[in-house]
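tool_call: predict_structure(chain=1)
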Amino acid sequence: MSSIEHTSEDARKGTVSLGSVRQRARLAAVGAAIVAALAVWFVAEVVFGLDLRRPAASVGAQAEDIDAVHVVFAAAVGSLAGWALLAVVERLTARPRRVWTVIGVVALVVSLGGPLSGSGITTSNRLALVLMHVVAAALVIPALARTARAPR
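tool_result:
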């Protein structure tokens, strides 16, 4: 019986495989990270009136505007990359939850280099960008860790 037929049979029986529960939980984590980052952007832009910009990376360059599309794209790419990395970690390590959590925290710290470096933006702009990274990571890291395969 193929996996498609097996899935269809499970659906008819009303059963759900552990894999599909994990996939839905992981997808929900990605969605939550996107919504949370977008909410921070909205509050910063609309409520506080900040003009969020990405810091200029080199001398002579200018800071670039950050709109909602940039926020959604960045949060989606980061979260989906985390999901993909977790899938690799699950295949290669005996303790995927622990390894994933460490990697996720390290990735967050590294990602903060973007908003904390460069020039051409205000301190409040930097804080808003850092907050976007932190809220997305605060949702994705533990949510994906909870879905990680049990230790071998």
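agent: The beta strands are 53-54, 64-65. Proceeding to next step.
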